[in-house]
């Protein structure tokens, strides 16, 4: 089972691309270090306060994949510098 989550996020305090990248890098590195997932910025590369993050995992069953993705999303939700606005799931 392949689980993919796409989430659009807002970074309110970023006033430059450099500040946005610092927040994004912090979140992405923490997710990669803690969980068995792949993470990448997918869209809005040139906007300061908006981004779209993709997170993917592969597991033998949907329940385990869903758990991994939920834990990764908790890192985003637990960071006060970034807010998750819209999240969509895909299963293959």
From TrEMBL:
The source's superkingdom equals Bacteria
InterPro entries, sorted: DUF503, TT1725-like_sf
Q: Which SUPFAM superfamilies match?
A: Hypothetical protein TT1725 (SSF103007)
Q: Which Pfam families match?
A: DUF503
Q: What is this protein called?
A: DUF503 domain-containing protein
- Which species is this record about? Bacillus taeanensis
Cite the source lineage: Bacteria, Bacillati, Bacillota, Bacilli, Bacillales
